[in-house]
Amino acid sequence: MRYKTMRVRLPRNGSVCKDLLLIELLITMTDIISSTLKTINGIAAVAVHPLVPASLLTFVAYSPPDMLRRFPSLNRLHQLLTANFVVRYRLPLQILLVAGIARYLNRAANRWALNNWRLTSHPGWRWANEIAVVTGGCNGIGKAIVIGLAQKGVTVAVLDIQPMPADLRANQKVKYWKCDITSPEAVSASATEIRASLGNPSIVVNNAGVAYTHSVIETDPEDLRRIFGVNLLSLWSTAKEFIPDMIMKNKGHIVTVASMASYSALPTAVDYSATKAGALAFSEGLSCEIKHVYKASGILTTVVHPMWVKTNMTAAHAERVEQSYGLVEVDSS
């Protein structure tokens, strides 16, 4: 088990020294607790795996006498288990077996639900024939998504106000539209050009996002309009432009990149948290409408909640976040 340590130069002030030592102790304790919980979770995962309790129950109840006579060690184990097992261990193992089966059934039901209750994938998906739209695809998570889709043969239309990086410009599967997604008119104009030059997209990835650091009472109205426009209101613009064709074909996938901030309001970033909570509500509500209003079970919706990721948006606080939480580095190669 390895623990992180924080090296600091202690100043002469005694109270500050104590504070720094306390911080270092808290970081170390957090690492110990995290490692311990991971170990416990690993043991629990093995214990509730149906094969473990089922194997022990089967061994006690149905071990062939011939096999036990051939292997004295197994015979002794069988005698030990049968002598004490009925009273002490049979019920706990039965509970573990039932819990393990229920866990796997729950996972299977979750996968089934995420596939809109279809047992198989939609028969019409062919990577080389698909067209994707990715907002904010010029850097960070969006760029990684663009590269990943292009590697599969998907033609990708990037909507961004940032200039397209050289490696994406060199990729023949990637096309670029400079577009301010806070403007429904700009999104509509870009969508018209995409349909005319590439065709109707079957994949939409709402990835674009911005964040600012300020308290609620210090929030600039223009910043507030922009963050809601990029992170939340643009979702309606892309949906109106691209989902109608998906409904007609009963085929499509809308991916919304939200954040762990969807579930927790961040001090000095309350507006960001509000937009991401709204993005989660948007995705869940859209999924219900697609299924029950438009009866288009072939359209999938996905909402993603990344933790801290090393992008341009987190660059200003990268060092502090890295020390406190750790940063996920996006592979955009």
UniProtKB/TrEMBL annotation:
Pfam assignment, any one: adh_short
PROSITE patterns the record matches: ADH_SHORT (PS00061)
SUPFAM superfamilies given in the database record: NAD(P)-binding Rossmann-fold domains
Keywords per UniProt: Membrane, NADP, Oxidoreductase, Transmembrane, Transmembrane helix
TM regions (residue ranges): 43-62
UniProt GO molecular function: oxidoreductase activity, acting on the CH-OH group of donors, NAD or NADP as acceptor
Family: Belongs to the short-chain dehydrogenases/reductases (SDR) family.
Name of the protein this chain belongs to: Short chain dehydrogenase
